[in-house]
Amino acid sequence: MFRTAFRQVATPVLRTQTVAWRRFLSDDLRSQIDKAVKDHDVLVFMKGNKEQPQCGFSRAVVQILQANGVDDFKTVNVLADEKVRSGIKEYSNWPTIPQVYVKGEFVGGCDIIMGMHQSGELQQFLENEGILPKEEGAKQ
């Protein structure tokens, strides 16, 4: 009885799915994000702000930046505007928040920043970008 029940395999039903792309990033919003990214040496799109992060990943990014000596950075609270929250993901082609930008370039999200911090690469990157002063005798 059980053998026959387990031998019967359902035949998959093939369905075509229509993929609808929704554009969240208007030209106006793109230019606003561009301006913000270019106007600040370090910019973090996050949930909350650096004084009061509203998710663990955002808090981790803030703590990592501060642990590396970066106290002067700007944050954008994506929870305040759904268009920014959706648009920044399209802008960077990165699906998660927080997102860190340094000198106008997207660096990564929490996982990337965490990995760079743990390997020591973040400190060197911030020094090379002129965010932090270079240490005496440091490799270039």
Structure notes:
It is built from six helices and six strands. With 140 residues, the chain is of the alpha+beta class. The protein has one domain (26-128): 3-Layer(aba) Sandwich (Glutaredoxin), CATH 3.40.30.10. Strands 4-1-5-6 form a four-stranded mixed beta sheet. Helix 3 (56-67) runs parallel beside helix 5 (110-119). GO terms for molecular function: 2 iron, 2 sulfur cluster binding; disulfide oxidoreductase activity; metal ion binding. This is Monothiol glutaredoxin-5, mitochondrial.
Keywords:
Monothiol_GRX-rel, 140 residues, Thioredoxin-like_sf, 6 helices, alpha+beta, metal ion binding, iron-sulfur, Glutaredoxin, GRX_PICOT-like, globular
Task: List the SSEs and their pairings.
Elements: H1 2-7, H2 27-39, E1 42-46, E2 48-49, E3 52-53, H3 56-67, E4 74-77, H4 82-92, E5 99-102, E6 105-108, H5 110-119, H6 121-128
Parallel strand pairs: 1-4
Antiparallel strand pairs: 1-5, 2-3, 5-6
Helix pairs in contact: 3-5
Summarize the structure.
With 140 residues, this protein is α+β, with helices and mostly antiparallel strands.
The DSSP helix count reads: 6
Termini separation comes to 72 Å
CATH architecture: 3-Layer(aba) Sandwich
The CATH H-level superfamily is Glutaredoxin
| Widest sheet, order of strands | 4-1-5-6
Count of folded domains:
1
Total number of strands: 6
Query: Level of helix content?
Result: 40-55%
Indicate the low-confidence ranges by residue numbers: none
Q: Quick check: average pLDDT?
A: 87
Q: Classify the beta-strand content into a percent band.
A: 15-25%
Task: Tell me the name of the CATH class.
Answer: Alpha Beta
**Overall 3D form:** globular
Enter the CATH topology name.
Answer: Glutaredoxin
- Rounded to an integer in angstroms, the radius of gyration calculated over CA atoms is 21 Å
Oligomer: single chain
* Major sheet size, sense and barrel closure: 4 strands, mixed
Structural class: alpha+beta
H-E order: HHEEEHEHEEHH
GO molecular function: 2 iron, 2 sulfur cluster binding; disulfide oxidoreductase activity; metal ion binding
Protein name: Monothiol glutaredoxin-5, mitochondrial
Domain Glutaredoxin: 42-107
Keywords: 2Fe-2S, Iron, Iron-sulfur, Metal-binding, Redox-active center
